[in-house]
Write a structure and sequence with these properties.
By secondary structure, the chain is an alpha/beta fold. A hairpin with a 5-residue loop joins strand 4 and strand 5. The protein binds fe (ii) ion. Fe (ii) ion (FE2) binds next to loops.
Amino acid sequence: MRILFIGDILGHPGRRIVKEALPLLREELQPDLVLANAENAAAGFGITPSLVEELLDLDIAVLTSGNHIWDKKEVYPYFRDQVNGRLLRPANYAPDTPGRGLFIGKTAAGVGYAVMNLQGRIFMPPLDCPFRKADEVLRSIPEEVKIRIVDMHAEATSEKQALGWYLDGRVTAVLGTHTHVPTADETVLPQGTAYLTDLGMTGPYESIIGMERQSVIQKFLDQLPARFEVAKGDVRLSAALLEADPQSGRALSIQRILRK
Ligand SMILES: [Fe+2]
């Protein structure tokens, strides 16, 4: 089976290119399952319930997130009320935090799959240990669900690589998000886990990680509070396409996807 995972969808430019390019990508790549990280779909910070619905309407099965998931206050009650559970927050927040970090579902063809969202702790808030949380979450997934995709939302390459090796052979893929810069290290690890340090951003690349450059540079110069706006130029969709064996859950290949 083929799984397309779209990297951090950022603001209106990111949503627009997903809307335009996804139908073509579906035709070309024939994915059985489409997933996306959408923590910054709302003007570059957070996501609102209506944007969740907008992205799910594009037949994206599950939306993962990260540290920015709490930026829009509407998301708190949404997590409490959402019936379908298709918006995830990292699993390693405190247990009583709204929302969940795991989704278990079936593709249109009836293949069971699980999506787990984790967040790193290097240069990020000190959440529960993502490694031990991954062990705990994996124990809760029924044995027959072989396709297991992990979004590791983290800053440090070392932490992402460590998680990839830690979970090798136990999940189908460990894919990194958060830095908004795609890395060129896609590989299938020896025990059959596909790995990529960062999927990259789906948004404007003529920017500093998606934001208008001038205000970001100014902030580095004066360290004063600043308002960041989503940039506009060089909008790209950044993703990875996985091929996996639904019987074993092993990844067979991973390929970076870029569309302008
Ligand atoms: Fe993030």
